[in-house]
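Format notes (please read before filing issues)

Several people have asked whether sequences and structure tokens are stored in separate files. They are not. Every record keeps both together, in the order shown below: the sequence lines, then the token lines. Line labels are part of the format and must not be stripped during preprocessing.
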Amino acid sequence: MIIDKIGFENYIQAQNKRHIIFDFDKTITKLLVDWSYKHKELNALFLSYDKNFDLNNFNDRQDAQKFYIENHGQEVREKIVDINYQAEKNHYSGHELVPLALEIVDIARKHAKLYIWSSNDKRTIDKIIKELNIDLYFDKIVSRNDVYFTKPSPDGFELIFDTNSFKSNYLMIGDSDYDRLAAKKSGIDFMNIKDFSI
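Then the structure lines:
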């Protein structure tokens, strides 16, 4: 499905989307990070708790992180948050705007409250959205730092949801299956940024 800018604006008005949630990395901008550091450090962390750790026993790295947080609690969560931030801070070489992203944000903010729900570190997000001069557009930013479990867990949505509103008023815009599944688990509609076109 291809969504043009006029179609998007018509959709959010017709469907009364008053709350629009954006993912960050690869939705607004693509972080240029060497993630191999993070993967190596996470593997070492999991091995320190389980000498038999094997990533092949999990669906993916997100699944492994969730398992070790569930079984070892806040201590592991904090270590994962730190490893992620060290990757984003020390192995970062810049970012590339996603085509049309700022135009979509600009259309959305005319009709809705905007949010960011991301598995990136808050310090990374804050720095880049200030650089892009869009930091004041967002009512709330929910990052990896704010939740126990990252997407596809719906934890982040629970920090955004206004109980005086309806889930039908919400829309999630992202790029990945994690975003789509997080929206589904939260009970809200989803659009893929890759489907937008001029």
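For reference, the curators noted about this record: The radius of gyration is 17 Å. The longest strand covers residues 92-97.
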